[in-house]
Write a structure and sequence with these properties.
The protein has about 450 residues and is α/β, with parallel strands linked by helices. It has helices spanning about 40-45, 75-85, 105-115, 130-140, 155-165, 190-205, 230, 330-345, 370-380, 410-420, 445-455; strands spanning about 10-15, 20, 35-40, 90-95, 120-125, 145-150, 170-175, 210-215, 235-240, 245-255, 265-270, 270-275, 295-300, 305-315, 325, 350-360, 390, 395, 400-405, 420-425, 440-445. The longest helix is centred in the middle third of the chain and has 18 residues, at about 190-205. The radius of gyration is 27 Å and the shape is elongated. The protein starts with 11 loop residues before the first strand and ends with a helix.
């Protein structure tokens, strides 16, 4: 009986992490992902790959034409901001977000604005019928003769539409809803998503078509499907927002053509989605009179400074364990700040329920909001009314010190532009107070010093 050599045995490889095994398993032994192990032994049996024909000869880098790869405006300014100037021809973008956040509405607006620039755009819907998309387009004012629409779930039909229309912008909604008859598995599976994405990317690069793919997300917010999908595309965008708020934020997680520290702001309204070039007012409430327990800070979303208001409430507890409730803030950092106030500021918070929240559904996780949380909590506990023209910026350490933060100059310029007149910032921030007009700047070394500044006559 002939013995099968090791070279002739099949090799199975995980599509997520590259782990290999000699037999098929349903779950990867390395990354623990399910359904990602496929046979990859055929290439190993054939031996080394021989030289073959090239598609384009190698040229000196100085001779490469870059004009065809210049970015083109999408017609949506906030999207262009995130992408670093616009959409690059031939680039493939993956837009991920939770169900109902407004991905389809945003991309339909992008397709419409693209068509209004006398360029053909093709919108492929795999989750809705063409009539349903048309109804949304009527509601949002996105109907245009250069915007082509098709409802398909077969990859072959999608490729035929691309060949017939020859668009300069292609939108696939979504990549998990398209299936190929040439590979096994159901649409949305690992094998199917990999094949569909690879085929569309190949066409986009060959025909120089800017392509946007909609991707589903898992429960933890990551892109569903194989991890290789994020490696194949040029740009990965995250579209996020609270269901209880109309504000939507667009972030770049990966961007081969621009920065990844910019955000775009949108407002989801009844008749579509509109850009919000100045979203500061959405996160700050308006009070007729000064109230205790509120403090405004300036956080950085990408390179954009945003004013946000932190509110706190302190009430005597009716339970054995005092409540510590947060909304829009990191509960661990709030607990740390409460401990600092108790230890270094002599605030007796052990018998009080403490509630802290942000205004307008803002999610503040940057350490620079620590000082505002501390001041708002102390103000609420002491029933001390704070001036409405005050902002506080700084990170709080466990020893009660206020640490320096980055981008302080841009934050102060934004506060001065909005009309604030007093800023409490970390000591040693190296800012020129005369450069901010009527904004009075006070530098503090620790939290007790910041609270003393509030108690001093103004």
């Amino acid at each position: 009986m002939a013995t099968i050599s090791k070279a002739a045995r099949a090799v199975y490889r995980c599509a997520e992490c590259g782990w290999t095994t000699s037999k098929w398993v349903g779950r990867c032994g390395e990354c623990q992902a399910w359904g990602t192990v496929d046979e990859a032994g055929s290439a190993a049996r054939k031996g080394r790959t021989k030289a073959g024909p090239v598609s384009h000869p190698a040229r000196p880098i100085s001779a490469i034409d870059i004009e065809s790869s210049r970015s083109t405006t999408s017609g949506v300014g906030e999207l262009d901001r995130v992408l670093g100037g616009g959409v690059v021809p031939g680039a493939v973008l993956l837009l991920a977000g939770e169900p109902g956040v407004g991905k389809s509405t945003l991309l339909l607006e992008v397709a419409s604005q693209w068509a209004r620039q006398d360029q053909l755009s093709l919108y492929i819907s795999g989750e809705e019928s063409a009539a349903q998309v048309r109804l949304r387009a009527d509601r949002t004012g996105a109907v245009h003769d250069d915007l082509y629409l098709a409802a398909e779930t077969d990859l072959g039909a999608v490729l035929s539409h691309i060949e017939q229309v020859q668009p300069t912008l292609l939108i696939i909604d979504s990549v998990q809803s398209i299936g190929s008859a040439d590979v096994d598995g159901v649409p949305g599976g690992v094998t199917q998503v990999r094949e569909v994405a690879a085929s569309i990317i190949q066409v986009a690069k060959r025909e120089n078509i800017a392509t946007l793919l909609v991707g589903h997300v898992t429960k933890d917010g990551s892109v569903a499907g194989p991890r290789t999908l994020e490696h194949l595309v040029d740009v990965v965008l995250q579209f996020e927002g609270d269901r209880n708020s109309r504000l939507r934020l667009l972030r770049a997680v990966k961007n081969r053509f621009g920065p990844v520290d910019e955000i775009g702001c949108f407002d989801l309204v009844d008749d579509g989605i509109v850009e919000v070039p100045d979203p500061t007012g959405l996160f700050v409430s308006r009070h007729h009179e000064p109230v205790a327990g509120t403090c405004v800070t300036v956080t950085m979303e990408g390179r954009r400074p945003l004013l946000a208001e932190v509110q706190a409430l302190s009430v005597p507890t009716t339970t054995v364990s005092p409540r510590r409730t947060t909304s829009g803030l990191d509960s661990a950092r709030v607990a740390m700040i409460l401990a600092v106030l108790t230890k270094h500021c002599d605030l007796k918070l052990g018998d009080y329920d403490i509630y802290t929240a942000t205004v307008g559904g803002a999610r503040l996780v940057e350490p620079s909001v620590d000082l505002a949380i501390a001041i708002a909590t102390a103000s609420a506990h002491r029933s001390q009314v704070l001036p409405t023209n005050l902002i506080a910026i700084g990170e709080v350490g466990l020893a009660g010190e206020v640490r320096k933060i980055g981008g302080i100059a841009g934050r102060l310029r934004e506060a001065e532009r909005i009309g604030f007149r007093h800023a409490i910032i970390p000591a040693g921030s190296d800012v020129d107070a005369s450069a901010y007009g009527d904004l009075r700047i006070t530098e503090v070394y620790d939290v007790p010093s910041a609270l003393r500044v509030l108690n001093s006559p103004r």
